[in-house]
Each structure stands twice: as C-alpha cells, then as structure tokens.
Design goal:
With 348 residues, the chain is α/β, with parallel strands linked by helices. 37% of the residues lie in helices and 14% in strands.
Length: 348
Amino acid sequence: MVNKGSAGGAHLVGSIPFANAEEVFRTVSPILGNQLRRIPDGETGERSMYILWQFDVLKNSPGLEPSSEGHYGFQDDRRRMPRVKLKAEFSSQDLYINALGYAEAAIGSYKSFALLKREGVIPQHLRFQVSLPTPLAPVISFVAPEDRPLVEPAYEKAMLKEISDILKAIPHEDLAIQWDVSREMAVIEGALEPHFDEPEKGISERLLRLASAVPEEVEIGYHLCYGDFQHRHFMEPKDSENLTKMANAISANVHRSINWIHFPVPRDRDDLSYFAPLRGLELHPETELYAGLIHHTDGVEGTRKRMAAAGQVLKDFGVGTECGWGRRPHETLLELIRIHHEIANSVV
C-alpha cells in the first residue's frame, strides 16, 4: 500500500463545457460540492479545446509568424497541425509573447466564484481551481522545431506573468493552481521528440521553475495526462510505470507542498497489472492522489471494477475522469456529474 495524504472524494480536471463559469459553479456545486476540495471554472469557450487557442496568441506575438510547413502531431496522429516560426529579422532577445489570456479568464471567473460563495451556492471550504498548461505544451505543439529553444523561454516568461497577475487578483487562501502535464508524458513515452537534452532532467527543471512561482499558501497540483482527443489517448500506456516515475520526479524536485496529483486510467484497464507500478509511489505526505478511472461509457459498474483493481495497490485515493470534459457532448454532462457523486460516496 502507498502511504500518502488523505484524499477521498472527487477531483475535476478542468474543462466542463457549459456556457460559462457561473453555469459550471451552479450546476456542479449542489451535486458534488461537498465531495470536492476545489472547483474549476470549466475552461469554457475557446479554452475548452485545451491549448488550441494559444496558436493565435503565438501567431500574433511580435517576432513570430505562421510557418508554411504544417506538421503531424503525435506518432500515429494524422491531424495536420499549424506552426509558427521566428521572423528572420528577430532574435530571441527581441521576442515577446503577448498576454496569454489565462489570467484574464481566471480573474473574470473568480468574480463569479466569490459572489456565489458569499451567497452559499459554493461551499465555503472549496478553493477556486485554475488549470494551466505547462509552457512546453504550446511550444512543442505549435512552434517549428528549430525555433523551440528560442521561443520556450519567452513563452515561460509570459506564463509566469499570467501567474503573477492571478496571484495579485485572487486571495491566496481561495486559490489552487493545477499544472496539466501532458506533452511531458508524451516525451517520456517517446511519442514526441524534445528540443532539449536529458528529457527527464529537463522536464523536472521546468516543473520546478513553475512551482517556485507559486507561494506556499496557494495550493498546487498536477494532472498527468495522455490526452483525450476524440476520446483517444495519444498512445495507450502499457501500465502506470511512467506515471509513477513522473509523480516521483515531481515529488523529489518540488520543495514545497504538493497538494494533489491526478493520473489517468484507461477504460479497459481494470487489471492489477496496470496499477501495480504505483506501489513505488513516493509522494509528499500531504499529497492527495486522484485516480482518473471514471468513464461515462461504462458508468458506475465499470468504474467500480477499476476501483477494485486500484484498491489492491492504493489507499485513501479520490476519483475523477482521466481528462477534462471539454470535448464531451453537452447532454452527457449531468449524468457524468452524478456518476462522480455516486462513486465518490463509496470511496474509502
């Protein structure tokens, strides 16, 4: 069994495609509010498609322009993806990335969160969760390979400015920040080629810099992700070995409280062999662990099978879906929330 901070209950990864943050808060809170520790704004609107909206941010930033060369994404992924490149007359020192838009969205949503919390719609114990991509994600997805080493520092600087603006506007005792660790998992799995040497070291250094920008009184967590475009992973993990390695690397290198780590569980994995590597988890004592084993397709019955397998390895874990819901049909959302409610009630 893994010894770790007590979790239980449910965790929402981020995107929930209702009309706006208020609808997310008003819909989720009455059903799941007492089973959550944090609530996201649903990443509504253009944010529902993860980082796709960041291509325009990059394209319109001084020093960058669209590249005539498209590219394919992950291995076996035949989607054509756009790219940007550094303008010939610009150097990396001249490069400036425009405001990313994450702070503006968070600050706007927090106003609704604060109002509904005062009115008692949102339970008083809940924090406002801001889910953010790591800078590596848009850079490795949208920037020409030869320019990634030049663009990534500028994008990271822009992301740190977003964090600073969020910290200035939102009371720290109300705030939780989640880093979505997706492209990093693709690098570790060999599905994406990094633009830096020693991938594991490079990823750890990047995650440490991001964590260091968040003061201790603000919660932070990590969503380890294999994607869910068209309800498919960028690749199917053979088991949780690389998830365990990533969680342990984060825990070893981040020298502040890590409040939660969330990991995905594929729908067809209710076998002990998938979960067995998690016996090697070495988390901070305060870290809550959430297993993303809820799937709408097989509902409560299928989820209980995955929980039973996970329970042979883990204790005190909470539950969630394996990724956000932004690409999910609207008509499935209420049922998915109710599945969370029923499953979270049974988590010991």
